[in-house]
Amino acid sequence: MSEEKEPVEVLRTPVELDYTYSAGVSASRFLRAVEQGKLLGQRCPVDGRVYFPSRGSCPQHGVPIEGEPVELSDRGTIVTFSVNRVPSENIDLELPYAAIQVLLDGADTTLFHVLGECSIDDVRMGMRVEAVWRPRDEWTISMQNIRYFKPSGEPDAPFESYQEHI
Amino acid sequence: MSEVEDSLSAPHRLAYTYKRSLGPVLGQFFTGLRDGRILGVRRADGTVMVPPKEYDPDTGEAIDEMVELADTGEVVSWAWVHEPRPSQPLDQAFAYALIRLDGADTPLLHAVDAGDESSMQTGMRVRARWSDEPVGAITDIACFEPVA
């Protein structure tokens, strides 16, 4: 077996960290709503900003966020993006594609997602997008229920409408 | 249902699949392990380091004179592991030990399968137990075991 006599030149040194991730009350409510195809944010009681995904406290004012969640649209505006040319095993889009920060209509914080059905030559700040959901019978308790966002065809949002959120 | 019980939870594995290039000196060390030999490197002052390094830690000069060592040695220091974790070298309780191999001047960190903590002693003699399926890794030495 000549192969066995080859010198050893490379060593595999994997690092594996096993966690049990607890979502907490607020994110659990958010995820259970995603399972039903709903996107929930929550409103800060001090300045009324809507956080998405919903969270238990406002990081700016340090107060609990209680009360009814706010249901958001699955449409929004790209506030920034970057082009990804490296494959990732949990994203099934063809390379290259754009990773985008989306400001959903009604939200004051952005969501990280990916853009499909759009050439990277066309993606731009202010572009209007809408969620493309997976088939209903594939939905789980996961944001993966939205496969990607795609251009909605609406006119671009004016810069002033999202400049606070870049 | 309390709020805590109402929280979702899920397993989450964060894994980094690192590979590293070994270079000429550590390459020989791991090739040696695969072939059932333990290699150290001789420094300018004549002492022998194992695992070997490419450069003398005191002078910084390149060193590459490999020296074959015995697979027996002496426990310099040790700590007992009562409940091994899944990634550790043995399934049953064992000792992590610094072992100075015969012919070496620096100790090597490895596991000692001593059965019971009361069997461990600084200065005790140990011998390598080799893996049946060597791959060119430190685990080609399955562990060390006490020499009667």
Outline the structure in words.
The complex is a heterodimer of chains A (166) and B (148). In chain A, a hairpin with a 6-residue loop joins strand 7 and strand 8. In chain A, the strands form 2 sheets. Chain A has a 5-stranded antiparallel sheet, with no helix packed on it. A 3-stranded antiparallel sheet of chain A has the order 4-3-5, with helices on one face. Chain A folds into 2 domains: 19-72, no CATH class; 74-159, no CATH class. Chain A is globular and about 70 Å long. Chain A contains 1 helix and 10 strands, in the order ββαββββββββ. With 166 residues, chain A is mainly beta. Chain A has one helix at residues 24-35; strands at residues 10-12, 15-22, 39-43, 50-51, 70-72, 75-84, 97-104, 111-115, 128-133, 146-151. The N and C termini of chain B lie far apart (59 Å). Chain B has one domain (23-146). Helices cover 8% and strands 39% of the residues of chain B. A 5-stranded antiparallel sheet of chain B has the order 8-7-6-9-10, with no helix packed on it. Chain B has a 3-stranded antiparallel sheet with strand order 4-3-5, with helices on one face. Chain B has one helix at residues 23-34, and strands spanning 9-16, 19-21, 38-42, 48-49, 65-69, 72-81, 94-101, 108-112, 125-130, 141-146. At the A-B interface, strand 1, strand 2 and helix 1 of A face strand 1, strand 2 and helix 1 of B. Strand 1 of chain A pairs antiparallel with strand 2 (19-21) of chain B.
Task: Outline the fold blueprint.
The complex is a heterodimer of chains A (166) and B (148).
Chain A: E1 10-12, E2 15-22, H1 24-35, E3 39-43, E4 50-51, E5 70-72, E6 75-84, E7 97-104, E8 111-115, E9 128-133, E10 146-151
Antiparallel strand pairs in A: 3-4, 3-5, 6-7, 6-9, 7-8, 9-10
Chain B: E1 9-16, E2 19-21, H1 23-34, E3 38-42, E4 48-49, E5 65-69, E6 72-81, E7 94-101, E8 108-112, E9 125-130, E10 141-146
Antiparallel strand pairs in B: 3-4, 3-5, 6-7, 6-9, 7-8, 9-10
